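Repro case for the chain-ordering regression, as requested:
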Amino acid sequence: MNIIECTGISVFFGGLPALRKVNLGVEKGEIRAIIGPNGAGKTTLFNVINGVVKPSEGKILFEGRNITGKPPHVICRMGISRTLQIPRVFKDLTVVDNVMAGALFSGRLKGDMLEKYVNDVLEMVGIADKATVKGGQLNIQERKKVELARALASKPCLLLVDEYMSGLNPMEIEDAIDLFKRIRKEYNLTIIWVEHVISAVSSLADQVTVLNQGEKIAEGKPEEIVVDDKVVEAYLGERVVKHT
Amino acid sequence: MSSILKVEELNAGYGDVQVLWDVSLDLGKNEVVAILGPNGSGKTTLLKTIAGILKPKKGKIIFNGKRIDGMPPERIVQDGIALALAEKELFPAMTVKENLLLGAFNKHARKNFNENLELVYKIFPRLKERENQKAGTMSGGEQQMLAIGRALMTGARVLMLDEPSTGLAPLLVKSIFDGLRQLMETKQELSILLVEQRAIQAVELCDRGYILSNGRIVYEGDIREAVTSGSFMRKYLGV
Amino acid sequence: MLDIFPPLLIIDGIVLGLTLSLIAAGLTMIYGLAGVLNISHGELVIISTVTAAVLLQFGSPLPLALLAGLGAAVALSSFLERVVLRPIYGLEGEERVLLGLYITLALAIFLHSALVSTFPLAYLTLSLPIPTVSFLGLTFRTAQLLSGGIAATTLVALFLFLKRSWSGMAIRSLTQNEVGALICGVSVKRYRLLVFIIGGVLASSAGYIRGLVATVGPETGLEFTILALLVCVVGGVRSVYGTIIAGIVIGVVYTFLIAMIGTYLANVALLVFIMLLVLIKPYGIIGERW
Amino acid sequence: MTAQIRITRRNQLIAFITLCTVYIFLPLLFINTPYVVFIMTQMLFFTIFAYSFNFLFGFTRQLFLCIGAFAGIGAYITGILLRESIVGVVESVILSTLTVGFIGWFVSYLSVRRRLVVIFTGIFTLAITLAFNNLVIGLVDITGGETGFRVRLVSLGLLDSLPLYVRFYYLAAATLLTTAFISFYLLSYTKIGYAFRCIIDDEVSSGLIGIDVAKIKMITAVLASGLLGYAGALYGLFSQLITPSYYGFLSLDIPVQLIVILGGRATLLGPFIGSAIISILNEALKFLGPLTQVLYGLILVLLLAFFRNGIVDFVKRRIVPWFF
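-- result from build under test --
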């Protein structure tokens, strides 16, 4: 059974469609990448899944339960965590408090386990050495790590990651790929991942979904996607396809 | 060919998010140069930095032999670099004519107002038809024409276009690129920096180009050759 | 129930409404360009009437006194923009609006108390030599007609300035789209100062116009601010034209309410209406958008 | 990590016990100067008002510009009920508390539901303040208009054995210290404190990690407003005179805001420090007369422009991380 099943999701902003009848089913344990050009609706899809935006049409089932239109905090407590494209950590809290907050309010962990779990997550993400630094004093990559750790600390079943790799150099991208591999293995997670660093996508994702102008235009394994006519067209323009 | 705009080892971004890393490029007089790359690669950031809306962290921007990095945007427009953004950034409650009028806000553009207006109406006749319509009520394609038209009204010698084809139907894309082609034929002393996500339209307008991936220049040279060669897609997407 | 003949009441209302529109137009433009809801705006009205009144008490000729008052309002307004509000320009979004609200509120309290305690008796009344004129069988007060005329003329002038002049275009462009204005070469800093200066001029003229038909005392600043704020909320916080229409409507309704149920309950009715409006349509009835 | 929290908690407890001691024994020093005790009582009431405003604005970013109006509603309800001898003191005060609590919940509910931006909540509540003022002055028959009406001295049970001017001092002190203690406890020892810290910092992120921001805002609004209604009623009984000028924006809201900003937003010791400074200033500057208002305005402008985070924050950053 798919852990999450979105059927016929449409979102309109002031009459303009941001998503049109998008279906998305992700298997348990999978890493699913979502790619697409500007304005394709990737972040909107995330906003719909975690309840920031209510869909105009469509239904979302998470582990078989209908979560359509539930507010973000409820969805978080049900086991879906999310990181943002531009990370928002708590600036006045230390790194460890940031992550602790994630563990505390999801209500998915019990008392004694909290501290150990939080320390494990900090080690895993590689930010343990900054544990007592305040969120506001971190640089952008450290903030991304803290946000990821905070999301992991809520012990989710499904993790939504929004553009983790942008702004990283090739070395750092390698590290991040490695990190996600370990996270999946260690925490037994399903990950949906919006990304435009395609090199990372192809070495990490099991399946890729391609959105363009609010519609799903392709889905498949990374190596199939890169040569898919519709995808090439969406990225490069219609006539390239004829040339090649 | 002598260059009119030169960017050297530019680093820029928003706040502490660095988007561009050591980007260098060169735009010749009367040349059209393409900058290609997928979304998030930093194309719009590059244009905004050149236009002075964002302050560069490091590096030089040289226009017509003079350093312009760190200058306020109104000075840069006056010097002759105009920008039409993908978000259009029009004045929705103003008419088409008023939008164009504001394009000619700087002193020397006011002098050549009639001449430039004629040119804009010639390459985008649709704008003349819609002269008195509110900009906010126009279609996406028309708004794109207006954004380009407004940039031209500044009397610029360098025109920077940010994804003029995004979100438009193929027919409209064609009319916009036809307009640009006509513009290059009529107007003397105009160089265009064309940023595009879709390569093919760009290829029809220019020979030379750059590919930007993840904030860095990964290819520089003959753009037609790059697009037709098999490795393009890999290079383009940074695979 | 009404002591005054309704048409005269309507004219009274329109005159008050136009005066409020003058103040509110400044408020709206300042909000549009600087992102500050200037709570101290009503004090600009008072600083000019107080200055003029004090000078008149010392025997200064009328034009000189009025000019000095205008100068005081403009100077204060520019000082507000260049010095007092400086800390907020580095902030974005809600933080900026909030700090702006707070600083101008504090400034309003400061000016209010300072003016009331220093010049408690500086009332401005500009009485005219001919009290009434007859027209179509009705007797109008000259002051009423004159103040209405001046207010309308000033608003038309403002309208033409915004519509026709380069500076006016620049101001409108900045309120509609700041990035758009930037890439057209419009300097934010320069026009921000300009709208504060214009706001000062408009507020000052509103004070004088009010002085023709009523007595303007140093304690009325907050009242002007509140009424103008209401006009802005009804007219849409970013639309100058909406502001003008809303001003007239509120002026007339308010005048009638006062005549029918007394000042205090009229205030209550108006405020309840505003509260409902904030809830139902926070961006105004008339204004097209923020 | 835990060690640090333990130190902070210990220091907070020390601070709290010190406060209790000072507040209990301080009036005994001035037992022969009723005026000083009177001023200190007034300071206590303003500290309570500031506590409410601090919870609303400092902790949950709900800009209620109607602190005076809320306290006033409480005072008028109790005052009128007692004047007309409808119910007893206790019932009146309870009714004041519940009514104002309900109004606070309603305002919060509306602004949360309608997703009003802070500034619109501000305008909305400013309108409440003005409407309250106009209503009170307009309904002369019931409220006594501008001059207000007198309230008879009421019995305070056990406290009646104390000298007249000390009774209300201890009543207010008990209210304040209880409020402060409950706040200290909740904020330092429970999850709620953590949630508050998250909400102050970033509301969006708080929602994402599973905090029900809307619920916390509304609960805070009920409690803080209820406290205002209660304290307002007591303030009315203490003054023995209820007039609109006591609860006006200039006479109540502005000093309260000054206290909170001076002491530091979203701190528990801030209101204590802020109100102490303001009270001392108030007395020291008495000779200025109405010019004190001017000075307050000026101080507020300067504080906002250059010293926005207040004294507690300054101390916290520069000296010790004691106070939350």
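Ordering looks correct now. Chain B has a mean pLDDT of 87.
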